[in-house]
Amino acid sequence: NVQKVYLEGRIAQGLDSDIIDLMIIGNDIDRNYLSSLVEKAEPLLGKKIRYLVFDEIDAEVYVIKHSKDLVLIFDYSA
After folding, report:
1. What class is the 2-75 domain?
2. Of 9, 2, 4, which is closest to residue 48 (Cα–Cα)?
3. What is the pLDDT, as a whole number, of residue 77?
4. By the 8 A CB rule, do 60 and 32 touch?
5. DSSP per-residue codes, 9-73
6. Which of 5, 40, 48, 58 could be stapled to 74 by a disulfide with Cβ–Cβ 3.0 to 4.6 Å?
């Protein structure tokens, strides 16, 4: 279950990029299904999608460390 998704990298800074960097937070995320969705989305967007998947506990440390570089784009926990 995806709880939050953050955009990071150049696009999060408002800069053009051929790469979309995402941080996905949730528990029991089906990584095979996620990978298949990414493979379908990349040609539609014309961009490479890179992503990190964290459970909610591990994400806390990452978010605190990188908070100034992250843009929250989805929040199901709210």
Report:
1. alpha beta
2. 9
3. 77
4. no
5. STGGGT---SEEEEEEEESS--HHHHHHHHHHHHHHHTSEEEEEEE-HHHHHHHHHHHGGG-EEE
6. 5
Q: What does the alpha-carbon distance between residue 25 and residue 78 come to, in Å, rounded to a whole number?
A: 13
What does pTM read for this prediction? 0.90
What letter represents residue 39's amino acid?
Answer: E
Of residues 24, 18, 33, 15, the one with CA closest to residue 73: 24
Structure confidence by residue, pLDDT tens digits, 22-72: 999 999 999 999 999 999 999 999 999 999 999 988 998 999 998 899 999
CB 63 within 8 A of CB 54: no
